[in-house]
Amino acid sequence: MKKYLLLSITTALLLIGCSHNLPIYEDDRNFDTTIINGTEYALQKLSYNGQTYISEPEQFMNPDDYDRFKLGRQIGKTQDSMQIYEVKNDKKRIAMCGFMFPATFYKLSESEK
Questions:
Q1: Which of 15, 30, 53, 73 fits 42 for a cystine, CB–CB 3.0-4.6 Å?
Q2: pTM
């Protein structure tokens, strides 16, 4: 019994400790809009350490095109605890997701490449 209690406490402490050291990305929702095929889409941006990533509304029109992207390790979070992940097969993209929230992809701003 003591072994299971110790294992549970150790696991909880590891999870809590790991999440506090992640950088906080600034989330600016609806900072701009774009029109694609006559439909207006709100753009969001994530910023951290001088880099800005812009959301990609194309992922909602052609979700199959984004199936090729694989999430890597968690690299940060937002103030409201959304998780930020690297994209393994595209160094110019990151993804934001959370509990009951599917991955939303962001691309490095053209002005910062």
A1: 30
A2: 0.76
